[in-house]
Amino acid sequence: MSSTSTHSPTPLSWKQADDNVHVATRDGEFAGFVEFDGARHLTRDSHGTELGAFPTLADARRALDGTPRRNTRSIRQTLRRHLSRARA
């Protein structure tokens, strides 16, 4: 079974449309936007579907782009997680 990506290999282009709104385009076409509501960054795709709420603009942008977020756990947290699973 083959996997198909819903995203073009062309990166998103971002522009700040207002103090709290960032708009993305891909290949000159509207791709979605991120709006800051004072507490969180809300991401919507090109159809207006909400993709989620994020603490940072960078996280919100990644949600639209489809770029996975890097795991930022410390080695101690990772080891604890694995040890607790091994004990279970």
Shape: elongated
The largest sheet, given as strand count, sense and whether it forms a barrel, is: 5 strands, antiparallel
Structural class: alpha+beta
Query: What is the number of strand segments?
Result: 5
Beta-strand proportion: 25-35%
Ends apart, CA distance between termini: 34 Å
Q: Whole-number radius of gyration? A: 17 Å
Order of helices and strands: EEEEEHH
Task: Order the strands across the largest sheet as they lie in space.
Answer: 1-2-3-4-5
Query: How many helical elements?
Result: 2
- Mean pLDDT, rounded to whole units? 81
Poorly predicted residue ranges: 1-5
The percent of residues in helical segments reads 25-40%
Give a written overview of the molecule.
The protein is an alpha+beta fold and 88 residues long. It is built from 2 helices and 5 strands. It is elongated. The termini are far apart.
